[in-house]
Specification:
The chain is α+β, with helices and mostly antiparallel strands and 230 residues long. Helix content is 48%, strand content 15%. It is built from eight helices and seven strands.
């Protein structure tokens, strides 16, 4: 709340956020559980709280970048001395620290991140946090980011494409909309629903290398054979 009050001067907004934090949680049985701190994962307040809390992490890495790595000359000097350079990319409670250096540099930064978060009463999710090389690839915001060799050349580029989890999720959504329980639905209503889901998903991933993936999704949404009866 202190970080919120430092940025938001409207006392009504601060009071509303505080009320959310103390509102409690409704259980699956319909009972209300008292909760005096925090907000449930997936709640409407979670993105706001994540951005507020992780702004401390943003500030920490921004200071390092501006004072030690902000210019090409500074980064070149660090490289000559065997030091790494890094940048933080953060979205809500997901973030990536991109490191130019060795694996031990990335591992040390992981500990540094954990120490900064500990001051805020937060901790890294061990099952979701890992140190990887760009050639191994990693998932961020449902996108797989990986450096690969361009077909027919010896050059290597960083590619972005829909992650396996994102692909399976949209397939499951299409399957759910066309399951037996929807057979009584008007065809135009069903098609509009599927189109909205596919259009939103495709728009999100349109900037990546998605042509082959889009073809697979098309094949999943549009079967090769159909039976028509008069």
């Amino acid at each position: 709340m202190d970080r919120l009050r430092a940025r938001i001067k409207d006392k009504r907004i601060c009071a509303l956020v505080k009320a959310f934090l103390k509102a409690g949680v409704m259980t699956a049985d319909g009972d209300l559980e008292e909760n005096y701190t925090g907000a449930p994962a997936g709640g409407i307040l979670s993105p706001l709280l994540a951005n507020i809390a992780l702004s401390a992490l943003d500030d920490h890495f921004a200071r390092q970048w501006q004072t030690q790595m902000g210019t090409q000359g500074q980064r070149a000097k660090r490289k000559r001395h065997g030091l790494a350079s890094w940048r933080l990319v953060c979205f809500a409670d997901d973030f990536v620290v991109m490191v130019t250096g060795q694996r031990q540099h990335a591992a040390a930064l992981r500990e540094e991140v954990a120490a900064v978060l500990a001051l805020l009463g937060l901790r890294l999710a061990e099952e979701k946090t890992r140190v990887v090389h760009i050639d191994e690839g990693f998932d961020f915001l449902n996108v797989t980011i990986r450096r690969m060799r361009k077909r027919g050349t010896s050059k290597r580029y960083v590619y972005t494409m829909p992650s396996r989890k994102a692909i399976q999720a949209v397939k499951d959504k299409v399957s759910a909309k066309t399951y037996r329980s929807t057979r009584d639905m008007a065809p135009e209503v069903l098609i509009q629903g599927i189109n909205r889901s596919l259009a939103g998903w495709a728009n999100y991933h349109r900037h990546g290398v998605s042509k082959a993936v889009f073809s697979k999704i098309d094949s999943h949404a549009w079967p090769d054979h159909a039976l028509a009866a008069a």
